[in-house]
Task: structure prediction
Amino acid sequence: MTVREFAALVDRDLRQWVRSPTAIISSLLLPFLYLLLFGQAFNNITGLAASLPAASGGGALSTFSGAPDYYSYFTAGMVGFTLLGTSLFAGANVIFDRRFGVLKKIVSAPVARDVIFGARIFSAVVRGLIFGSFVFVIALAFAHVPGLNGLTVTASVTPVGALEIVLAMVMLTALFTAISVAIGFLIEQIDAFFAVINLVNLPVLFTSSALFPRTLLPPWLKAASDWNPISLASNVVRENLFAAAGSYYPDGPAFYLGVLAIVTVVFGALTTAAVRWSLRPR
Amino acid sequence: MGDAIRAVGLTKVFNGKIRAVAGVSFQVREGEVFGFLGPNGAGKTTTVNMLTTFLRPTEGRATVDGLDVVGEAAEVRRRIGVIFQESTADDQLTGRENLRLAAALYGVGRGKAEAEIARLLGALKLEEAADRLVRTYSGGMRRRLELAAGLVHTPRVLFLDEPTLGLDPQARAGIGDTIRQLRQEQGVTVFLTTHYLDEADQLCDRIAIIDRGEIRAIGTPSELKERIGGDVVTVAPLSDAVDLTAALQRVPGVLAVSRQEGAYRLKATRGETVVPGAVQASLAAGVGLASVSVKRPSLDEVFLEFTGRAYREEEGPTATDWAVRVQRFRGGARR
Result:
């Protein structure tokens, strides 16, 4: 009865989460502040982009790969950035579980190791979908607040498109949670864990096109960013929200989803092996 | 009745040199409460970890409920309950939620689990605290919750690693009562480790004395005590007028007589059986008696007898820990 064990572990994870409102609020506060401060400040580059001559790739639409302004472009990336942050810290719970003995109890039960790992990822995906939706809701709401910039959706979003966005969020969260949880199983000290996670966090963010216009990246960085999972997820979001995006991206959302799926499966296999190895009988 | 646990030459070597457990063999019968007694660092927890499939033996083999702990580890896990030294409950869940989690992890169905949880909460006096977060529990309540979590899937064999470590005497007594009750009501086999001599003495049907990775003696508490020469019967006469030594020596069952501070100390395999003879002999010699007492030798003496070292509950662990650390530091093997 693998389902019962899986469900019980997910239930426990989410119960714990719901019971720490401080943690929930602070993890919602970060994207909120980015949307309120960072995005508002940088949206002024929309005007700069619009004033550039068309010959040098100017104009808002071409600078922001089909998004009408920087803020709308940035919102799509903000979803991926938020999911990256919350996923990467999911592994800390493994270290706390180990320290407080809970992991010992779970591991001593006749439960498959993959179920323990999978349940952690599943509950992180549930949380990720809530965080991701929060970003959309706040950015859309800001559009109606006088004096604030907000997300402007220029395409009519189809059910398939919405599903593609959800899938991108699910895979991105699963990917980074798997990496974080595997690191949590391999590293037993919390300070070492945070050091490693910070080492992953910022390079992954800065080699993506989440916060910075893809068109303005130097060629080598653009090449790297095109394969970055956060870029892939952002592409899927942008192509579905902005009518003009299709003509600025070389491939369709299905392609980016496919690449993201391959990356997720490969890392999923690697991290599963790592977790099994860390829990092997000694 | 079969053996619930059988270990043959069980050995664990860490890092190729530290022999934590060195060729341990024993059998635990079904329904028995069996104790591993020894100071910290003696190899008790390592043995438990091998029996509960946590560690792989370096040499030797063991079966639990007839199943091999290496080859059939998954099924062994299903049939055993393990209560660790440290707390394993989730602080941020209530006691009941912790038990539900434990039940689900062992594949117990919802309805059956709820009934069992209600029963255990009652038996372990946790009903009132059941829906409070474990964070608010006292040390004794946490231990009882651990016990409940280890029993929620009605295991065939229960392993308890230092179940009363760090508890006050009242809480210790409570855990002791629960273990006795369990054995009586459910007939579960219990394997426990302890470094409290009195606990081993009171709870266990049989005891193995383990020191430095080796079993020094196995037997019932009274057998072990008998092996070191039996009981001490102290006969205190009303007057010193007559020397009773020779008369008491002739009483059947008396092994030796000595005089100490005006009283006679008789050694006998079973103290109570020589009391009538000793009283009769004294009265026949015309000496009235102030008191007669029978004392069984304590496990302290047993430990001393079999390990050559005095047993110190409080001091022992730290001293052993240090010895291990120093030897690891020097890169030497433990034995």
Remarks:
- Chain B has twelve helices and 14 strands.
- The CA atoms of residues 230 and 269 of chain B lie 4 Å apart.
